[in-house]
Amino acid sequence: MIASRRGARGFTLAELMVAVTGGLFISIAVFSLARFGSRFYQQETRVANATLGALVGFERLKSDVARAGFLGSPNIARDPALCGSVTDAAANWPTELAHLAAIRIETDHLKAHPVLDTAVNGNIQPDAITLAGSYDSGDEFPIRMVAEAGSGYDVYLQVLSGPMARLGPENLARVFKAGRGMRIVDSSGKHQYGTIAATSYNGGQPIVSLTQAPRLIVRADSSATQCGFKGFETGGLASVVNFVRYELRDVSSDAAHAALFADSAAEVMADDTRVELVRVELDTAGDEIDGSLELVAELAVDLSFGVTASTVGLGDGHQVLEVAEPNDAQVVAIAGDTQGTSARPQHVRSVRARLSVRSREGDRSANITPSATIAPGLYRLALNPAADAAERRYARVRTVQADIALTNQLGVTW
Questions:
Q1: How far apart are CA 414 and CA 313, in angstroms?
Q2: pLDDT tens digits for 74-105?
Q3: Nearest to residue 217, comparing CAs of 44, 406, 377, 82?
């Protein structure tokens, strides 16, 4: 038994050290491979999440653009259905109502941004767009009467009507929210606009109160003026007018979105200079309505718009479609601010919207240069553009684009 044990051969110390060292190297290789695979998976997941977020947000933008002009005015400055004039100083029109148009595009909106506004990244100049129409309701509400009340007006809505039955008493203040606009179509088909001050129920009677500005035009009989309310304007139609704005914005100081920046600049390059695509509702004075800010797409890079417009009404006698691509100065000439300009947003038949978003981290060391086989476009974004070329880190960019028909303006020829 003892001889058998002495004859059994075991591992020498040298063999044991070689085996342990070899196993250690294999463990390190496996750990490194697993770590790289996990990091690669996380990077690709972030890119996929950014792309998915862009698609979801872009669908929201497309839906709102397609609804622009619904129960509103394509261009209130030239609208032949308007009773009165937005240039009437005595009426004291609020800013957004005086500039009311189905769409209003502003170029070069986000200025002096440390990541976007550099030659390395192509001097990206994002646009902003303001849309107007009835977004919270698809109904026109029959009016029982319009009466002056103190320093404003009270619009009494008919109780026994389909639109009021669909709305319900509990939703009156949600749709006719203070600060929003109201359009009133009188019995002759003329339009007037007001600013909602409050809503109330008086003995079961729904009332929407309007401010004094702009003033409503009233005529005692049909021959007093060219237009205006006759009597109580019973049977007129009222609808809400929303002003919705899309833009790129830095929301890092907004407490509601603090979770996005919980581990920001210290760990991820350029998180402290990121911007997001947001949707916000404006009141008739042009101020943001509290609680209306929505984050539509994270890590946005660029937002741009082009338009296709009709030339009907320009005196040429026939229709020709004019196309202005995104970043073309002609976009603002057609769909810009209507006050003091020759802009004609009422002629816009479709909008080409383009949204670009990036991945959170810079996982590439070089840009993609357009060539004969690579179409021009924004493919990567330098997160540290001020650094030397060898030190720059590039984040991947995904871009979505669509042509959106403005169905509410297809019949506008003036």
A1: 5
A2: 999 999 999 988 887 667 899 999 999 999 99
A3: 82
